[in-house]
Amino acid sequence: MTTSQNELINQFRELGKVVDNLSVDYWTEYASFNTWQFWLNLIFLFVPLLVLLKFIDRSQIFRILFFGFTIHALMNYFDSIAVGKGFVFHPYPIFPLFDINLSVNTSFIPVTFMLFYQYGVNKKKNMYIVGLVAALFTGIILGSLDDAIDLLRVYKGTNIFFIFLVDYIEFLLAYWLTCFFNRMRKKQEEI
Predict the structure, then answer these.
(1) CB atoms within 10 A of CB 69
(2) Which of 2, 86, 120, 162 could form a disulfide with 130 if both were Cys (CB 3.0 to 4.6 A apart)?
(3) Closest by alpha carbon to 88, among 144, 142, 149, 154?
(4) Is 90 exceeded by the pLDDT of residue 166?
(5) What is the pLDDT of residues 123-142, one digit of tens each?
(6) CB 121 within 8 A of CB 60
(7) Cα-Cα end-to-end distance for the chain
(8) Beta bridge mates, 164
(9) In terms of DSSP H, where are the helices of 27-126?
(10) Confidence of residue 157 (pLDDT cuts 50, 70, 90)
(11) Nearest to 151 by CA among 41, 11, 21
């Protein structure tokens, strides 16, 4: 490794420490246990998981959970990029050091999408329309609510419609990936 590369690595590490300290200070002052936003985020984290436990179709549990895990991963990847590039900011993170909206990306939206997906599969509905309705619910309705109560800030021309489009794309990617692996499973069973 060159000296200049090592210097840049050290700068990244030092700036990372500064950002981490700012994150903890900000969270302690504005987003910790003494705010109603913290408790709302806690509800967004745990209540959907309880709903999922009650309503998930256990005969297709692994397929639905794979779909949900894919949504979870995509949500967190895209949100991390959007936060890092300054398109969105979450003023009330549930934990310090997480710039993403962990409760919504990890629980609320994946569970919502899983239940829509389950409905579409069980009722043999067009998944493109099911995904569109799910994204309207999460992108437009939830996004507007988050914006209205200041759980989400958008910048650089980003708006709620953009969030809806990203949610729909994530639904489609998860659907296609789940279909791909489901076909692989069915081919294996035929052998």
Answers:
(1) 14
(2) 120
(3) 154
(4) yes
(5) 999 999 999 999 999 999 99
(6) yes
(7) 50
(8) none
(9) 36-55, 61-84, 102-103, 109-122
(10) confident
(11) 41
How many angstroms separate the CA atoms of 110 and 49, rounded? Answer: 10
Name the phi and psi angles at 153, rounded to 5.
-125, 135
What pTM value is reported for the model? 0.91
C-alpha span between 66 and 78 (Å, rounded): 18
190: pLDDT strictly greater than 80: no
> Cα-flanking dihedrals φ and ψ of residue 81, to 5°?
-65, -45
- Alpha-carbon distance of 74 to 68, in angstroms, equals 10
Q: What does the block give as tokens for 146?
A: 């988050």
Smallest CA-to-CA distance from 72 within 90, 55, 52 is with 52
Please say if the pLDDT value at position 191 is more than 80.
no
